[in-house]
Amino acid sequence: MAGGAGIMPMVKADAYGHGMIECARIFAAEGAAAFGVAEAREGILLREAGIEQPVFVVVGTVPEIIPAVLRHRLTPVVVDEAILPELSRQAVELGLRVGIHIKVDAGMGRQGLPPADVPAFVRRIRATPALTLEGIMAHFPMADAPDSPNTLGVFARFEAMIREIGDELPAGCRLHIANSGALFHFNRTVLHMSRPGIALYGCYPEGEPHLPLPDGEELHPAMRFLTRVIQVRRVPTGTGLGYGQTCVTGRETILAVLPLGYEDGYLRRLSNRAQVLIHGRRAPVVGRVSMNLTLVDVTDLGGRAAPGDEVVLLGRQGGESIGADEVADWMETISYEVLCLFGNLNDRYYVD
Ligand SMILES: *Cc1c(COP(=O)(O)O)cnc(C)c1O
Description:
The protein is an alpha/beta fold.
C-alpha cells in the first residue's frame, strides 16, 4: 500500500519551529494529503491561511473546543469514549456528519484506547449516525531504533486489532501509524498514510550518526540560526567571565559578545560547552550563557572578528556546519527540542 499512501506532514509546534503556515503551504504544494497539529487553535490558523486539506488534531479534543473543531472542519482524533456524546450532540445540532479518527495505544503507553476496546468502540461509532469512522491511528515509541523488536511488536498488535474488527471496519477507513523513523526503517508499516515530522525539517529521527536512508539519499536541514557580534573585547589573562565566573581566561583572550541568551532558546546548559561558527571556523562559548548575552572565545581567529560579523549557532557557514543533533548533544536533548526552541523564540526569515 505504501506506493499510494498519502503523507500527513506533522506541523505541530509551529512546524517544529519552522513556521506552520509557511511550511504547510510548501507541503500542500508538494501534494500533502492532510496535516497533523496538536491543538485545535493550530488547525484554525491553518484554515484561516486557506489550507483546505483535512487537519487532524492528534492529541484529542475536549468538550470546550468542539464548536471550533466543527466550525473549521477539523478532524477530531478521539482518544476515549468520554467525548462521543457531546461530539454527537453538537454534530446533530449543526446537521453535520463528522468524520473522526480513533487513536489507539498499541504500545506507546501514552494516550489512546487499549486495542482490546477498539472493536466495541467501532460498533458504537457505527451506531452513532452523526459520526463517521474515517480512520484508526497509533504511534510508535521506538521507530528510530531499527534493531529493536519494539516497532514490529506494536505493529503486530495494531494489525491483530484490525483483524479483530473484521467486517465492522467501515469501507474507506484509513489506517496510519508510521512516523519519520518508521518511514525510513519499517516501511511496511506505512498503511494508508504516513505522518512524518522531523524528517521533513531535515533531521534524522535517530540523531547523529544517522543510519543510511533506504534510497541512499541525505536529508538537508531546513533551519539555520544566526546572530551578529555586538562587541569585540580583548581581556587579560586571569579574567573571570560572566555570572559565577565559571571560566577564567588562561591567556590574553579576544571575546566576541553575542546578543543572545537563554531567553532566545540558547539554553544555559550550553555554557562553556557549545561552539559557534564565525568566519567559517568554530569558536567555543566561554562562561555562562545569560539571559541576553553569550561570550565566545575568538582569539584563534587572529583578530578577524569584528562587530557585525555573522555568527552561526545552527547550520552551515563556509565549509563548517553545526547540526541540530550536535547542539542537542550539548543541550542533553534531541534535535526536535532544539528546533522548537530556536525556531519558536526568534524571528524567522525564509530563503529559497
Ligand atoms: C509528532 C508526531 C509524529 C511525527 O513524528 P516524527 O518523529 O517527528 O516523524 C507522528 N505522529 C504523531 C501522532 C505525532 O504526534
